[in-house]
Design brief:
single chain; alpha+beta; 7-stranded antiparallel β-sheet; 7 helices
Length: 212
C-alpha cells in the first residue's frame, strides 16, 4: 500500500497509456515511476533530475510512498518557476505535489491513429466493450420487466400471475375457445343434475368384488 507523504493516507492506483501512477484522494499529489515519467517529460530533464537526486546534495524531508525511505528534494526551473521534485533514488519513484506535474514540459505525443494496437490494449478494449454491453442488457431487462398497465401491479402484489409485454396473436384461437365453451356448458348441465352425472360418468366409490 502506497501512502501519501503529505496527508499520510493510502493512494489510489490509476493508469493510462504511459503506465501506472498513484494519486492522493485528498491533496491530489501523485507518485509515478521513473520509467513512466520518461515517457511524458523530456528525457534530458528527467536524466538531470535523476543525477541530482543521486548526488546526495539535497534535503531529504519526505518519505517515499513506496519504500518509506527519504526522498531528495531536487529543484527544477520550469516556466520561470522553481519546482522542488521529490525523488527516491532507492525504488525509482518520483512524487509530484499538486500542480507540479502540470507545470513541467511534456514530450510531443505522436499520432498513433491507424497503427496496430498491442495485444494487451486489444484485450482491455474488448473487456471494456463487454462490460458496456452487459450494463446495457441489464438496463434493458430492468426497463422491460415492468407491467404494461398500472393496474396489473395490484394482482401481482397478491401473487396472481399477470402477463406483461403482451404480443398480439396472429390468428384467433377458435378451437381453444370452442373447447372451453363446451367444457363450461357440460359442467353447468352436470351441476344441475349432479347425482345422475356422478353415477353415469364418475368413478365408482365401492370396492371391486373379490376374485374367485
Amino acid at each position: 500500500m502506497f501512502i501519501c507523504p503529505i496527508c499520510k493516507i493510502p493512494l489510489n492506483q490509476n493508469g493510462n497509456i504511459f503506465g501506472l501512477f498513484w494519486v492522493c484522494p485528498s491533496c491530489n499529489g501523485r507518485a509515478v515511476t521513473l520509467e513512466a515519467v520518461r515517457k511524458v517529460i523530456p528525457r534530458p530533464m528527467v536524466n538531470h533530475l535523476w543525477q541530482r537526486a543521486r548526488s546526495g546534495q539535497h534535503a531529504r524531508n519526505r518519505q517515499c510512498p513506496a519504500c518509506k525511505h527519504r526522498m531528495s528534494e531536487v529543484p527544477i526551473i520550469s516556466k520561470e518557476k522553481t519546482e522542488y521534485i521529490d525523488v527516491c533514488s532507492k525504488c525509482h519513484f518520483i512524487w509530484f505535489d499538486p500542480h507540479e506535474f502540470e507545470h513541467l514540459p511534456k514530450v510531443e505525443i505522436k499520432d498513433t491513429q491507424g497503427l496496430p494496437l498491442p495485444m494487451e490494449a486489444k484485450e482491455a478494449l474488448a473487456l471494456a466493450r463487454l462490460e458496456s454491453l452487459k450494463e446495457e442488457q441489464v438496463q434493458q431487462e430492468m426497463s422491460s420487466s415492468s407491467p404494461d398497465h398500472w393496474w396489473e401491479v395490484i394482482p401481482a402484489l397478491f401473487g396472481i400471475p399477470i402477463e406483461y409485454n403482451y404480443t398480439p396473436l396472429k390468428h384467433k384461437p377458435i378451437a381453444t375457445w370452442s373447447l372451453a365453451a363446451a367444457i363450461t356448458l357440460v359442467s353447468v348441465i352436470a351441476l344441475r343434475n349432479i347425482e345422475p352425472a356422478i353415477a353415469g360418468f364418475g368413478f365408482p366409490s365401492h370396492s371391486w368384488p373379490p376374485v374367485g
